[in-house]
Design brief:
alpha/beta; Rossmann fold; 7-stranded mixed beta sheet
Length: 335
Amino acid sequence: MKKTKRIIALVLAALMLAVCFAGCGGTSTTSNAGDNADKESKVYNIGISQQMKHEALDAATQGFQDALVKHLGKDHVKFDLQNAQGDSTACTTIANQFVSSNVDLIMGNGTTALQAAFTATQDIPVLGTSITDYGTALDIADWKGTTGMNVSGTSDLAPLDKQAEMLNELFPDAKKVGIIYCSAEPNSKYQATTITDYLKKYGYEVTDYTFADSNDLAAVTTTACEASDVLYIPTDNTAASNAGIINNIAEPAGVPIVAGEEGICKGCGVATLSISYYDLGYKTGEMAYDILVNGKDISTMEVQYAPATTKEYIKDRAEALKIKIPDGYKEITVE
């Protein structure tokens, strides 16, 4: 009888142990399934502040969105796209709204948009695109390629020495070069200062013609055309948005314009050494994915640049100005 009781006790103990192991195993499986489900159902909220509407910035925004949709899936990312229409106060308001909404990441498209986002938060990752120089934009004197803060991104700076070289290739007999840009855009000032040194090496007399906003652009452009043989316009957002005003003055005056990017060139230029803003935005989207999903530390991520530049020209304007375009230039189609 005692032996029977002992056997029964051992069997019961074994059954209880089996139940315990089953329970532990079931708990572990449920936990893993829950983790996977959370990861698969995660929806990332992205705030996009675009400084203003024009072709280059629009292309960068589209590339950024396409990259994240491709890598995350359209059901796992939501974009809150806001356009500041060139108003710095609106950039600040938009950035503060994104912070209040606790978005997962902010993309600032344009220098003022980036600056506003950085000022609004030191916690949410902030990526910039269409930024010429991050040292200038963020007031970092000893710029080494990373910010050490919650900011990184991509730069739209085409090599300024190559732009000066191209201008000289097209206009070797010109004497006076006028540079037109918006004084409210620090990165435009940076480009103007940098390319001036390169242009002077070719023997040009270089003069800056700055405008505060679109209201005085026509008057400044008129003065620049009267005093210059050729004009250069850097990657300036305000100039890009008002390229038609510039063209309406420069074209009748017969003054050619070399532009810092394709969008400005389409509006008023004859040639440009350009990058793809779509590709630039797409690269920014890939950086966002690395931050959000792969856990990359934004403070140590190096600012990225466009992988290639292209010499481009507007055929009709070149012919009208009797400018001979050398081999190796791609014709821009203007719709």
